[in-house]
């Protein structure tokens, strides 16, 4: 693996191809560089996936310098682009063809800046759902680059500039990469997630966050439970790229209802450390989320006792109670 260190305020590069071992480790710390006094080598103490170089945080976290990592052999690269206050957009770059896509561009300017730094064009815009903080950059990016906008058929009338309609179960090709479209309603009726099986990555928008799920604006607990179950059926080492940096606040709620979960305790401490340094918590893994995320742990006896959920309540009913408790936390 070759690393490329650089300073920037727009994005962090995350290599997407990887080995399939469940436990990944950081490359040698001599290969990493952080500027502006970020302590050399401190991340060696943390257990994080190889792909998870936590660099540029959102503007609200105030980090302007970071080190990006790439794999020479990787054919698909993922670059995190912080937007608005706590949103994440993701640039997808196919090394072999030069094809570039962006997932959920909240606004155009950070994406344009990220593309300009590497002199790249934009081929596709992928939207997980219709909310403006995930589609706000569509019109300007489409006008500037001629990019095709991709979204859910259910949201065809609510996604600006939509060109290509995809639905649950569809398969679509991003350059040479097969993309499985998963209908994941709950947050919205037409929410979809984009799963790249070849690289073991899924873009979940506002359906699944680290340690939480999206608010049920248009859907029901049953729909959200079904969507999360569908995502959980993917391999445990699938890496999850979510739409917002909510992990610190999510960890506080999770600990309040499952305080004896030792894996959660450890992860919450790591999250607090990352956020104190202004470092993103994306991506997470399904393996970690299954061990810590209360919305994936609706059968947990401790959680049910904490929230007075009957042992006979269904998982969807439990999720509804957990979601209400989170909304009022």
Q: What structural keywords apply?
A:
single chain, 329 residues, alpha/beta, 7-stranded mixed beta sheet, 6-stranded mixed beta sheet, disordered N terminus
How would you describe the overall organization of this protein?
By secondary structure, this protein is of the alpha/beta class. Helices cover 26% and strands 21% of the residues. The strands form 3 sheets. Strands 1-2-3-4-5-6-7 form a 7-stranded mixed beta sheet, with helices on one face. It has a 6-stranded mixed beta sheet with strand order 8-9-10-11-14-15. Strands 12-13 form a two-stranded antiparallel ribbon. Strand 2 (76-83) and strand 3 (87-94) form a beta hairpin. The chain starts with 11 loop residues before the first strand and ends with a helix.
Task: Explain the layout of strands and helices.
Blueprint (H helix, E strand, L loop, with lengths): L11 E4 L60 E8 L3 E8 L5 E4 L5 H9 L6 E3 L5 H4 L2 H8 L2 E5 L9 E5 L4 E4 L2 E7 L8 E5 L4 E5 L2 E2 L2 E2 L7 H12 L6 E4 L4 H11 L4 H15 L7 E2 H7 L8 H6 L8 H13 L2
Parallel strand pairs: 4-5, 5-6, 6-7, 11-14
Antiparallel strand pairs: 1-2, 2-3, 3-4, 8-9, 9-10, 10-11, 12-13, 14-15
Order of helices and strands: EEEEHEHHEEEEEEEEHEHHEHHH
The DSSP helix count reads 9
Query: Average pLDDT, to the nearest integer?
Result: 83
Largest sheet: 7 strands, mixed
Radius of gyration: 19 Å
Fraction in beta strands: 15-25%
Q: What are the segments in which pLDDT stays under 50 over at least 5 consecutive residues?
A: 1-11, 15-73
In total, the number of strands is: 15
Biggest sheet strand line-up: 1-2-3-4-5-6-7
Helix content: 25-40%
Category by helix and strand content: alpha/beta
Overall 3D geometry? globular
N- and C-termini, Cα separation = 43 Å
